[in-house]
Specification:
Elements: E1 2-7, E2 10-13, E3 18-26, E4 33-39, E5 46-52, E6 57-59, E7 67-72, E8 77-82, E9 91-99, E10 103-106, E11 110-115
Parallel strand pairs: 2-11
Antiparallel strand pairs: 1-3, 3-8, 4-5, 4-9, 5-6, 7-8, 9-10, 9-11
């Protein structure tokens, strides 16, 4: 089992910044990627950004150039720096870790609200 605990959500005005962090614990030795998903009211959960153990990153087009994902393998944490936030970024953000054998693990979610 892998436990994921997120922190850093909150309320910010459009154009502002927030940083989300996620700490992983448990059976993390086979995790090959970690990422952030988000789910807005009435919408499906979508991938925001993902980072693999070799450092390769992937972003959804709508956040490219504004968000940056990073990973500290020594501390088993993954962070999402969100800049130039827009009201459409408002959602519950979920930390995700993927194990090729056992599948995906999820955090409890943290609310991000961007006011216009």
């Amino acid at each position: 089992q892998v436990q994921l605990v997120e922190s850093g959500g909150g309320l910010v005005q459009a154009g502002g910044s927030l940083r989300l962090s996620c700490a992983a614990s448990g059976s993390i030795f086979r995790i090959n990627s970690m990422g952030w998903y988000r789910q807005a009211p009435g919408k499906q959960r979508e991938l925001v950004a993902r980072i693999f153990t070799d450092g390769i990153t992937h972003y959804v087009d709508s956040v490219k150039g504004r968000f940056a994902i990073s990973r500290d393998n020594t501390k088993n944490t993954v962070s999402l720096q969100m800049n130039s936030l827009k009201p459409e970024d408002t959602a519950v953000y979920y930390c995700n870790a993927y194990n090729p054998t056992f599948g995906a693990y999820w955090g409890q979610g943290t609310q991000v609200t961007v006011s216009s």
